[in-house]
Design goal:
The chain has 22 helices and 13 strands. With 486 residues, it is an alpha/beta fold.
């Protein structure tokens, strides 16, 4: 089966193909932030196998959802005869069973896909939707060998707690799950090229990615023949820009009571090095407990934040960072403008600001950390087992000792550690005396504080490479350019 319209998504396609090849019925949940391409993936992959599809309606009553169901069933049957509107979801699923039983495919044993999209919207108050879905799977689908039931939804918190981690009737019923995340750099380039945007070099694509991330819907708004600055200007800084007012809608569509989610994200946007759980609680004057843990899990599962345990520390010391590029960009650049329209050319004028340097460094660092597999490949250690983490040492206030921060350590199974530095520049990066001193200090403090005996290699990831000079030779710098992240 060819899926030529699907860009990237290799692991996800493998999961869906396994479901097609399975000798049993399959129950698959696909979840992730809005506009990430969940519906597109399911429709494109299972094209020709979907026998029934319904899309929930936001904020509709039970009656409206059941009428919507009837319209969907009529469309799927293709007979032009409108079925009776069911009185309940239990009756609706019974109608699906009768419809499946009437299909020729049902006799042939071919896999048939039932696709329930925007599942959280179908589950209206007091509708008994979930018990009916559970009954449909347990008493009908799972007894057959030819059904693939796919459920999908953008309300991440609902999907995670009601389906993926369900403790109720659907507990352990899923056979497979797909957490759909944004495109990586290579997929982003491939996607843009599929839209005939071929003139942008890798540096330009990184610039766009730093603002928009790898969200397919955002990237679909990129127009050919424009520079990265023009693209970002038109999408983010004009009143008609597709992403000018996206941020609030994004969080409110994903999470119930999203205010605390947004406060956590805003707090993390201010601290490049990350915050511990206790620091987040202290800053927000929030209470530790189940609700807070649930919110942190939802943000991490949806790909907005990332937690990493610093080198030599325990899980309780995990540092949380904001790693969603669009959220970081919005909070640094769009939100401060309020309702003000900055006019054309605004983004270009900001790129000499100190604020730009700080934001671009943070964003680029996050992108490099997300592309750890590509970094390992560039280092020739793709098959070497490793653990990636940050590291920092903060001396006590009264101490004469120097502190040190390392953004990324790749601790390898071959007795070697790569100390990684990420530098976003619009030209080649040049190591001067001050920076060389900083690097030497990092190595010295790291060795003293960890008593590590492994080989230490300084690895610098830059946009256009590092100028070769006496310092690069002395420090034995390993130089990786952004091209290798693609």
């Amino acid at each position: 089966m060819a899926h030529s319209n699907i860009i990237g998504r290799q692991p996800e396609k493998k999961i869906l193909q396994q479901a097609m090849d399975s000798p049993e019925s399959e129950f698959i949940a696909v979840y992730g932030r809005r506009r990430i391409g969940k519906t597109f993936l399911v429709r494109e992959f299972f094209e020709g196998n979907i026998i029934f599809e319904i899309i929930g309606i936001l904020n509709a009553s039970l009656g409206s959802q059941l009428e919507n169901f009837t319209d969907s069933l009529e469309k799927s049957a293709g007979l032009g005869i409108k079925p009776k509107i069911p009185s309940s979801w239990k009756e609706a699923f019974l109608q699906i069973e009768q419809f499946i039983d009437s299909k020729p495919e049902s006799k042939a044993g071919a896999k048939m896909v039932v696709f329930l999209d925007e599942l959280p919207w179908l589950n209206t108050s007091r509708s008994n939707f979930l018990p009916a879905l559970q009954h449909f799977w347990n008493n009908y689908c799972s007894k057959r060998k030819d059904i693939i039931l796919v459920v999908c939804g953008s309300a991440a918190s609902w999907m995670i707690h009601q389906i993926v981690r369900s403790k109720g009737g659907l507990h352990n019923r899923l056979t497979r799950q797909i957490r759909l995340l944004p495109f990586n750099l290579a997929e982003t380039k491939q996607y843009l090229q599929s839209k005939n945007i071929t003139a942008l070099n890798n540096y330009s694509i990184v610039q766009i990615y730093m603002a928009l991330g790898g969200v397919p819907f955002y990237l679909s708004k990129v127009e050919p023949g424009k520079s990265p600055a023009q693209i970002i200007d038109s999408l983010c800084f004009t009143d008609s820009g597709a992403l000018r007012f996206e941020y609030d809608q994004l969080y409110r569509s994903l999470f119930e009571n999203s205010d605390l989610h947004m406060k956590i994200v805003e707090l993390l946007s201010k601290k490049r090095k990350g915050n511990t759980r206790s620091e987040i609680l202290e800053n927000l004057k929030a209470k530790s407990g189940g609700t807070f843990s649930k919110i942190m899990e939802e943000l991490e599962e949806s790909g907005f934040i990332t937690s990493q345990v610093p080198f030599g520390k325990k899980a309780n010391d995990a540092l949380y960072r904001l790693t969603d590029e669009f959220s970081l960009f919005h909070l640094h650049w769009i939100k401060p403008l309020g309702k003000q329209n900055p006019g054309n050319g605004y983004w270009l004028t900001r790129q000499t600001d100190q604020k730009f340097k700080s934001w671009s460094g943070y964003s680029f660092e996050g992108i490099c950390i997300k592309h750890i597999n590509e970094l390992k490949n560039a280092l020739g250690i793709a098959k070497v087992s490793s653990v990636e983490s940050p590291w920092r040492y903060l001396p006590s206030k009264n101490s004469d000792e120097k502190g040190a921060q390392i953004d990324l350590l790749i601790d390898r199974a071959d007795s070697t550690i790569n100390l990684c530095e990420m530098k976003f520049y619009n030209s080649e990066f040049s190591i001067d005396a001050g920076y060389a001193t900083s690097i030497r200090n990092k190595i010295k403090v790291f060795k003293e504080q960890t008593a590590i005996r492994k080989n230490l290699f300084i690895t610098i990831i830059t946009t256009f490479g590092t100028v070769q000079n006496s310092y690069t030779n002395e420090l034995e710098i390993i130089d990786i350019k952004i091209d290798e992240l693609f």
